[in-house]
Amino acid sequence: MNELLVFKPARDANTLRQPLVPVFDIQPLAGWDEVPGGSLSTLQKTDAYEFIWIQQGTGSLMVDMQNIPLKPYQVYSLSAGQLRKASFSNDVSGFYISLSPELFYLLANETNSAFLSAQCIGIQQVTSVQLDEETIDETGEVLRKIEREYVNNGTHRLEIIKGLFRIFLLYVAGKYVQPEQQELQNKDAQLVKEFMMLLRKQFKQKRLVLDYAKELCVTPNYLNRVVKKVSGFTASHHIQQYIILEAKRRASHSQSSMKEIAYTLGFNDNAHFSKFFKNNTGMNFTSYKRKVSA
Predict the structure, then answer these.
(1) What pTM was estimated for this model as a whole?
(2) End-to-end CA distance of the chain
(3) CATH of region 185-293
(4) Do domains 2-180 and 185-293 have the same CATH topology?
(5) pLDDT at 7 exceeding the cut of 60
(6) Residue 155, Cβ neighbours under 10 Å: how many?
(7) Residue 1's pLDDT band (cuts 50, 70, 90)
(8) Residue 208: is its pLDDT beyond 50?
(9) Sequence ranges of the domains in the chain
(10) Three-state helix/strand/coil letters over the chain
(11) Distance from C-alpha of 146 to C-alpha of 152, rounded to nearest angstrom
(12) For the domain bounded by 2-180, which CATH number is listed?
């Protein structure tokens, strides 16, 4: 599957990394704040799945307007499309890795773990895994091998990196503690995963459970029932909340007006969007934008 991986040429310490790469990127966290426009220190919405592996030091991660403390001996996994920004202590040691959705889904299917399913399904905003000292050492060794392969031009490096990262994921998956309420039957979990993937791609055009049920070849009632069983909320709730989340992201991260955001999200009627936003957030759009801009 070499065509899935596109790598940039080797870069020295004085070369700036691009904030996003098409398929795969890895960089050490040490000295992250010395890189102008670094991919983590700038508030932005990404199209990649991201991992933060911390061996030493602490930090703070803001994801979709929620603050999450970062701790040592932890791996954090973020979904594509989230608005995020991170800061770290001066003594931080670890790695940042980003993967395209295509590569992430490929590895998720190959590893078949609850750890990655949690991100695919979208139950958790950020998935975190506590590692013990032995696993930190093992995963750290794997990531350093990936970093070396990444900047070298060795034969078969694409397959080597893919294989090494799969090993990293298996180590982490082995330490993932699945919340009791998320112990899912494979069939139900797969349906919810497919629904959430469709939702991320089509929420601007489709706002009815019926639309997604048709694509998934199930009835709307069945889809609502399974999604609620797996995630705790109905499919209709997820659709509404994803639209609201995207509206909040745009209100926080752009200078777009309510009319422009409404149109981008598929609302032709400005008043309809305004009512939809207030019903789901408890405040009108103008008040929310003023609050996050303060």
Answers:
(1) 0.67
(2) 47
(3) 1.10.10.60
(4) no
(5) no
(6) 8
(7) very low
(8) yes
(9) 2-180, 185-293
(10) CHHHCCCCCCCCCCCCCCCCCCCEEEEECCCHHHCCCCCCCCCEECCCEEEEEEEECCEEEEECCEEEEECCCEEEEECCCCEEEEEECCCCEEEEEEECHHHHHHHHHHHCCHHHHHHHHCCCCEEEEECCHHHHHHHHHHHHHHHHHHHCCCCCHHHHHHHHHHHHHHHHHCCCCCCHHHCCCHHHHHHHHHHHHHHHHHCCCCCCHHHHHHHHCCCHHHHHHHHHHHHCCCHHHHHHHHHHHHHHHHHHHCCCCHHHHHHHCCCCCHHHHHHHHHHHHCCCHHHHHHHHHC
(11) 10
(12) 2.60.120.280
Question: Which residue reads 């000295």 in tokens?
Answer: 31
pLDDT of residue 56: 94
Is 102's pLDDT higher than 60? yes
Residue 54 tokens read as: 């911390």
Place of tokens 């777009």: 256
